[in-house]
Amino acid sequence: MSNTLQQGMTDAARHHHVECVIGIVLTGGTIGAHEDNLILSVGEGPTQAETALIELQRMWPGPESLRTKVASPLRKLSENLEPSDWLTIAASVRQFIEKDNVDGVLVFHGTDTMAYTAAALSFLLCDLDRPVVMTGAKLPSGDRGSDAKRNVQTALVALHDLSAGVYVAFAGDQSAGKVHLGTRVRKLKASGRTLGRAFRSVNRRPVGVVEHGHFTACVPYTAERHTGFTQALNDRVLALHLYPGLDLEFIFEKMIDDGPFRGVVIELYPSATGPDTRDQFSVPRFIARCAGRNVVVATTIAEAPEKNGKAYETTVAIKKAGGILLEDMTSETATVKLMWALAQRSQPSDVSELMQWSIAGEIGG
Questions:
Q1: Which of 55, 66, 70, 228 is the most exposed place for a label (fewest CB within 10 A)?
Q2: What's domain 3-217's architecture?
Q3: Looking at the predicted structure, is the pLDDT value of residue 97 above 90?
Q4: Residues 6+ positions from 61 with CB-CB distance below 8 Å
Q5: Where does the chain hold its CATH 3.40.50.40 domain(s)?
Q6: Exactly one of 27, 68, 103, 112 is catalytic; which is it?
Q7: Tens digits of residue pLDDT in 264-297
Q8: Average pLDDT of 70-82?
Q9: Number of helical H runs and strand E runs in the chain
Q10: pTM of the predicted protein model
Q11: Is 76 designated active site?
């Protein structure tokens, strides 16, 4: 729960009344893919807005009254979003918190790239002290069997109880909704009417669970505020998924040596390995050549292995060549963080250091 809301509850004990104010940021996605969508009709007309606000108030879990402020900085399917859109969404959230002094912000977003936006907001808003919760839907809210209302309710309950940070709250077709840290979440499946969870936490348990309108913490997250960073991204980052036969020499010559990229993220094989063959397929050779062009290379794996104190020879070679090994950071988060880090620091060594510094729970824990 935010400091503002906590203070409000203290005042409530004296005045027997408290109001909670939340900002709602609309961006589009499946949750807004139907013309009579309940949530996206907020602000589009007096009748629709009134209906939507009444519904949100019914979902609100707190004893205090709810007041909302709505912004619609863009309306796109999430697969069409670009890094510049993350900046737009972040600016809208920041406006609510810094100018309107809301207690928290709810962001409606398409599910396909929600993990990327959640990571971007985690870094771009790392100086703020309020909770930001993202949610969406498998099916448009106007469709029969849509999970939109269930996800919105999950998000509202989470928003009421969470401390500062960026989170993804989603129930889908499950009875209990999960709340994931924004830098640790990944979309698993293309939803539709199929059973199963659309999102899960990677290399970390969920922050909490929402069931029957109540939030239960699993692994609580306490954000540290980080100030002094610019609201900027450098999208000259290339993300590669390693596979046998990937010609890294061709990539270097066509995209790195002669191209605009300043950073590369490579998802290695599950044991944090990659070919060390001293030819066009060699990961250490590619990393060393990138270093010669002041291009930062960060490496990830799909999921962190159990710690056993051992490392494969190729893993050692990758680190020796200058590759940053981010063992428990998702490739989605690593890609976004590298865009952010490159906009904060000019020297590769400083970028490398920032990549290994946990800003929003993306490393360790």
A1: 228
A2: 3-Layer(aba) Sandwich (3.40)
A3: yes
A4: 156, 157, 160, 213, 214, 215
A5: 237-355
A6: 112
A7: 999 999 999 999 999 999 999 999 999 999 999 9
A8: 91
A9: 10, 14
A10: 0.89
A11: no
The residue from 27, 30, 117, 315 that is catalytic is 30
Out of 27, 68, 111, 135, pick the active-site residue. 111
Fold for domain 237-355? Rossmann fold (3.40.50)
**Quick check: is 113 catalytic?**
no
Beta-strand pair 177-181/208-211 = antiparallel
At CB < 8 A and 24+ separation, what contacts does 221-225 make? 221/163, 221/165, 221/181, 221/361, 222/163, 223/126, 223/163, 223/164, 223/165, 223/360, 223/361, 225/126, 225/127, 225/128, 225/129, 225/164
Q: Which of 138, 178, 187, 337 is catalytic?
A: 187
pLDDT band at 46 (very low <50, low <70, confident <90, very high): very low
Angle, helices 114-124 vs 331-344, to 10°: value is: 30
Q: Dihedral angle at the C-alpha atoms of 313, 317, 320, 325, nearest 10 degrees?
A: -80
Would you call 230 a catalytic residue per the annotation? no
Catalytic-residue membership of 154: no
Model pLDDT for residues 248-272, shown as the tens digit of each residue: 999 999 999 988 999 999 999 999 9
Neighbours of 315 (CB within 10 A): 24
User: Which residues in the chain are classed under CATH 3.40.50.1170?
Assistant: 3-217
